[in-house]
Amino acid sequence: QVQLVESGGGLVQAGGSLRLSCAASGRTFSSYIMGWFRQAPGKERECVAVISNGGATTRYADSVKGRFTISRDNAKNTVALQMSSLKPEDTAVYYCAAARSLPVTMTARSYDNWGQGTQVTVSS
Q1: pLDDT averaged over 10-residue windows placed end to end, the chain, 124 residues
Q2: Backbone angles phi, psi at 72, to 5 degrees
Q3: What is the pLDDT of residue 26?
């Protein structure tokens, strides 16, 4: 297992940008695919973006494609989510997740390591 800690959430105006970061424990980070998920009040958890273990493959939810970018630095055991052109509907708690030895997937049940979440609030 790995321990994941998200940071970087906060309050931002619509149209602004925010960068989330997730720090992972251990030295096997490069063997995990990583994902960012979000959950807004009254809504189910949804996948925002995922990235392969080496970082070569990424996938995004249609709602964020072109605005968000996922990246990872395996030397630093971190994964980031750069969010731009933020909209009020992006408001949610954002979670970092990891899964070992899988092709990239946006299915939440495939991930078995989760961070504590960080709040992102976008004001109109």
Answers
A1: 94 98 91 97 96 97 98 96 98 97 93 97 96
A2: -145, 155
A3: 76
Name the token pair of 57.
């493959």
Distance CA 39, CA 36 (A): 11
Structure tokens at 41: 């009040």
Angle at 39 between CA 33 and CA 42, to 5 degrees: 155
Contact 32, 98 (CB under 8 A): yes
Distances (CA, A) of 34 to 56, 85, 92, 93: 12, 23, 19, 17
CA atoms of 120 and 10, how far apart (whole Å): 5
Task: Tokens for 62, please give them.
Answer: 């249609």
